[in-house]
Design brief:
The complex is a heterodimer of chains A (281) and B (374). By secondary structure, chain A is α/β, with parallel strands linked by helices. Chain A contains 8 helices and 14 strands. Chain A folds into 2 domains: 221 residues, Rossmann fold, CATH 3.40.50.300; 47 residues, no CATH class. Chain A is 30% helix and 25% strand. In chain B, the strands form 2 sheets. A 6-stranded mixed β-barrel of chain B has the order 3-4-9-6-8-7. A two-stranded antiparallel ribbon of chain B has the order 2-10. In chain B, a hairpin with a 2-residue loop joins strand 7 and strand 8. The chains are: A alpha/beta (281), B alpha+beta (374). At the A-B interface, helix 1, helix 2, helix 3 and helix 4 of A face helix 1, helix 9 and helix 12 of B. The complex binds adenosine-5'-triphosphate and magnesium ion. Magnesium ion binds next to helix 1 of chain A.
Chain lengths: 281, 374
Amino acid sequence: MRTSSAINVHALSKTFGEGEIAVNAVRNVDLDVEPGEVVLIMGPSGSGKTTLLLMLGAMMRPTTGSIIIDGIDLATTPERRLPALRANHLGFIFQDFNLLSALTALENVELACNLAGIAGREASDRATELLQRVGLNERLHFHPDQLSGGEKQRVAIARALVNRPTLVLADEPTANLDSSHGREIARVLRELASEQNCSIVVVSHDERLREIADRTLWLEDGAFREFDTMVADPVCTMTVHPSDATPHYQHNGITYWFCSQTCQKDFATNPGSYLDRTNQP
Amino acid sequence: MATRSASHNMPGRVPLARRNLLADPRRLVASAAAVGLAIMLILLLDGLWNGINRSVTTYEDNVGADLYVAQPGTHNFFGAVSQIPLSSVDLVRKQPGVNWASPVRTFLAIVSLHDRKIPASIIGWMPGQPGGPWEISKGRAPRTKNEIAIGRVMANRHNLQIGESLELMGRKFQIVGTSTDTFMLSFIFMTHAATDQLLGASDTTSFVLVGTNRPAEVRAELAASGLAVHNRDEFAARDLVVMTRAYALPIGMMRGVAFAIGILVIALSVYTAMMDRRREYGIVKAMGASRNYLLSLALRQSLIVAAAGFIAGTLFFLGGRAIIAAVRPQFTVVLTSASIARALGAAILMALVASLIPARRLARLEPATAYRGG
Ligand SMILES: Nc1ncnc2c1ncn2[C@@H]1O[C@H](COP(=O)(O)OP(=O)(O)OP(=O)(O)O)[C@@H](O)[C@H]1O
Ligand SMILES: [Mg+2]
């Protein structure tokens, strides 16, 4: 076991259900993330990304394997100790921001401090500092419904980082943002991770996040694959891994790969309409 | 740079429970009003109960006797059958420490009014001695065998005027005054001699009322001479039991129902408020909220609703009492500090019980819902 890693995942598997209906959502995954490293995990729908993230976030028990953060194995830690672990060692960023609507931006961040046992002035100072750092000095006392999507996600980033966690987990953090805000969020996330030496595992379909990632991993059928063989789906532009099982279609002697049967069908009905924006293999 | 937050210097924790409730003020107001009605009912029932209790013991409270000498086996004043020789009065008077002793005869009788018959407590006493009307509101106290003073509430309710005559057990009496009485008991005061005639009994009485500064010693000495002696508080307490027995159950049940309604309203309003933000609570859980933190969220919200309900209930009560006083002045609704403490205690207890339901629901909430977008 490498002790220099911020997080060390070994032989991690998750199986839902039993017997005939068993789903092996994550299969025998190994992953080491260095302190301050940003790891992007991509993969088709249903490949087990969220399942993996939930296990890393101590919100779901693995079927087998170990997840070691700061020397603690999440897989075997008693249930009652998990909340404190989540509050102190982990940060979370969600696709739809998930701020608490009745609280101001500042209070949303302060609440995270409270949950880690920090209250009063110290919590408020820390929260203010971080919100200023993500450029929200003018928005401290705004409620989420008064903030734009990008601003909300910046509050969420401040909230995830305020307790200086070892690892931040983000599920599709840019999915609900337009491209300029998505890029902005990615940049802020990267900067803060470097400053605080905090590791980030991001799950996304968003190619833009590759710019900030130190490493991109491809998850398919619950296991990591080599990434250099990836191609883009000409219909939805998602990254796909060509294999016999991947939907594909031949047009003018070239094979195009798709994320799903639906995209394949769309393409087949009128290939010409997609080809001007195609990324060929 | 960090110290620019000086304006935000609220100590402690983010008041999430309060913020979440205040985010929907209309629901909070509606819940407070509903809980307020339950609290109002509890206060009104308590006040009526206090009024009943006070009126039942009006005689004992006002007549000024410290001890009551009675026939052995008699344990209360109203409606009790006690017959002792009139000579007991002299026996009692001789006892050292006795300031005064006077005979009182009492029994329940049916009074025939022009349109109906009503029960009343006949009290016969020796004019000039204690035991009779302690306060005459109109007219004067009876002096002769044909005169009576009746209770004010009874006089008002049945429109009986001074100077009119009233038929009682086949005899006619003239009303010469009105005295204190209550909505629970109608008093008719007459001379002891008049009661002798009505009952055809002479040389007997029901009780000997005793005034003394040393009730314990006098009581022990009288009891040694074979008389049954009771002190004021015992008599009042037993009268209470006898007279209020019929009311205790319905009032108790109504209190219980009001209490249960309060619990349900608080539980329902906090529960629905929480379910509307189910996802947000999932996030709080994902962020690492402990069981205790979530429990305190549920409890705080319940307490806030209960506190708002208590304030609303007190205001409703004051309004309700004013209405009762205007419409049915004979009903006395008595607000004591104990009633307020009881209502407050009920509100807090409601909140405690009510918080169990949302707390249980929160405890079972999956933090993963925050990720799954559930
Ligand atoms: N609670 C569950 N019970 C049974 N099966 C589940 C459960 N959660 C997930 N699965 C299955 O596990 C597999 C992986 O799901 P997961 O949500 O991790 O995929 P994902 O990569 O996050 O997909 P997406 O990109 O659509 O979010 C899927 O086949 C899914 O149906
Ligand atoms: Mg997912």
